[in-house]
Amino acid sequence: MSTALKSSTEETPTGSRANSTAVQRGPGFRMRRLNIPAGLGGWIWLAIIIIPVYYVVITSLKTQEGYFGQNPLALPTSPTLENYQLVLEADFAKYFMNSTIVTLGAVIPTVLISFMAAFAIVRGKGRFLKLVNGMFLMGLAIPLQATIIPIYLMIIRLNLYDTLLALMLPSIAFAIPLTVLILSNFIRDVPNELFESMRLDGCSEWQTMWRLALPLTRPAIVTVAIYNGLHVWNGFLLPLVLTQSPGLRVLPLALWNFQGEYSVNIPAVLASVVLSTLPILVLYVVGRRQLLSGLTAGFSK
Amino acid sequence: MSNAVSTARTAAAPATTGGGHNGQRNSALAWLTLPALFFFLVFAVVPLAGVLILSFTSWDGIGAIGAAGMGNWFSVLADPGLYNALGLTFLIMIASWLVQTPISLLLGVFTAGSQRYRAALAVLYFLPLLLSSAAVAIAFKALLDPNFGLATGLGLPFLAQDWLGVPHLALGLVIFVIAWQFVPFHTLIYQGGVRQIPKSLYEAAEIDGAGTIKQFFHITLPQLKYTIITSSTLMVVGSLTYFDLIFVLTGGGPGNSTRILALDMYLRGFRANLMGPASVIAVILVLIGLALALFLQRLGGKDKQGSQLEGM
Q1: pTM for the structure as a whole
Q2: Inter-chain contact A72–B150, Cβ cutoff 8 Å?
Q3: 3-class SS at B117?
Q4: Residues in CB range of A33: below 8 A, 6 or more apart
Q5: ipTM score assigned to the predicted complex
Q6: What does the pLDDT look like over A63-118, one tens digit per residue?
Q7: What is d(CA B10, CA B4) in angstroms, rounded to the nearest whole number?
Q8: Which of B49, B63, B199, B252 is deepest in the core (most CB within 10 A)?
Q9: CA of B167 to nearest chain A CA: how many angstroms apart?
C-alpha cells in the first residue's frame, strides 16, 4: 500500500507546495514494535467483512438441495452455475445495460460541467461567483431524498416519467456540489506561475482550462468520476420512484424485484447479488490503486 | 489536510488580482458556471422550493393538486408517528456515529501502517464500498436466516434470533449493517488523514520514549481533528439518507420500529399517496440536514485558521 501511495503522488502532476510537503511527510509511518492488539482487531474486522461475502458467493453456487442440506458455510459439494443461468434468463443483461447507460449518462456531464464551474470559482472573483460557490456548498447539506416528491412531479410534467433520462437529470444535479468542491480544491493546487505564463502566451481562460487545468487535475477527475459512478450505479430511490416498466429497471431495482419473486430460492437471489456486483468488482480488481488512492486524496483534503 | 489547503489558498490569491482585464475575465469565467448552475437550479433548488410549496397542498400523486393551507402541518405535527420517526432517525444517527467513528479511525490508523499484510487486508476491507445498499440488505437477510444462515454455519446459536421480527433486534441489526456498509469509506478517509501526519512528530515522540498508545492519543488523535470533523459531517448528514438499506432490509418494521424519517416520507407519499404530509416530512428532513451541517461546521470552523498555520 505504501508503494501505491508513493507512485500516486509522483503521478500527480500538480507539483505545488502542497504536494511536495506530502512527499516529504512520506506515506504512513513505520511502527517498529509488533502491535498485537491492532493486528488482532484487524483480523477480527476482516472476518466481519469476509464471512458475509464468502457466504453469499458459495451459496450462490449451491443447488436448492445443497442449500437446505449442507452446512451453510461449507463449500458446495456439487457446485452449479444454474442459479446464474436463471438470473441471466431474468433479463439481467438488459438491466446491466440500463445501469451502464444511466451511470455514464450522469457521470460524464456531471464531471464536465462541475469542472468548468470549479475552474471559474477558483480563477475568478466577484459577487456572482461567490454566490454560486455558496449555493453549491449549501447543497452539500441537503439530503437527496427530501426533494424526491417535487422531482417526481417535475419528471411527470416534463413527460420524462419512466425513462432512463429521468434518472440521469436529478443524479447530475445532486452530484454537482461535492464534485465542484473536490475539483476546486485540486485546481487551487495548480501553481499560479503556470496560469500566469499561459496568460502571457495570450491564451484565453477557455484554453487555459482545457490545456492547463484539465491535464493537471486528472487524478481528481478520476476520483470524482469513480465516486459519482458508484453512487449512481448503486442508486435505488430514483429508479424506484421515477420508473415502473420492467424493461427500464437498473440493477439495484432489478435485484429487489428478483428477490421478491424468488424469495424461496435463496441461492438464485444471492447469485443475482453477485452478478450485479461483478462488473464493479472487475473494475476494482483492475483499478484498485487508482480508486483507493484517488478517494483518499479527494476526501482527506 | 490543513496545511495543503491553506498554502494553496495563499498561492491562488495573487492570481485573481494580477490580471489587467479583471471585469472581462470574470464575466468570461462566469459563463463557465452556467451549465452546472442550470442543472443545480432546476433539479435541486426548484425541487427544494417545490417541497415547501407542496407541504401546503393535497395531492395523491396522480390527480390534481389542491390547496390545503396549514392542514398537512397540523396533522403531521399532531401525529405520534412523526415523533417516532424523528426519535429513530436521531437514535440511528447517534448510534451509527458512536459505532463507526472509533472503528473507522482505528482501522484507518491500522491500514496506514506500512506492513505488507495490512495493505493486503485493506484491499478486502474496502469490498463493501462496491456493493449497493439493496445488495447488502438482501445478502444480510439471507445470512440471518436462523436455519440456513450464519448461526448454523458458525455453530453460534445466539445468532439464531428472529432479527427482523423483534423491534429492538431489528434496530440493532440496522445499525450493524449500516456500519458494515459505511465503515470502509470512513476508514479510507482516516487512512488518508493519518498518512498526512508529519513523520517527524512520531520520530520526536519516539526519542522522548512515548509508546504506541501515548503516540496515538497525543499525536494521531489531535492531528486528525479535521479529518474527524469531515468524516463525522459526511456520516451524520449521510445518515439522513439511509433510506434504501432500511427499505430493503426491514421495510420500516417490525411495526414502525425502524421507520426513520426518510422512509416515513416515502411510505406516506408513494404508498399511502399522501404527498402533502410526505412533503411536510421532507421539509423537516431538509431543516435537520441544514442545522446539522451548520452545527458541525461551527464545531470545526472556530480555530481552523490558527491550527492550519500551526501545522506548517
Answers
A1: 0.83
A2: yes
A3: helix
A4: B212
A5: 0.83
A6: 888 888 778 877 888 788 888 888 888 888 899 999 999 999 999 999 999 999 99
A7: 10
A8: B252
A9: 22
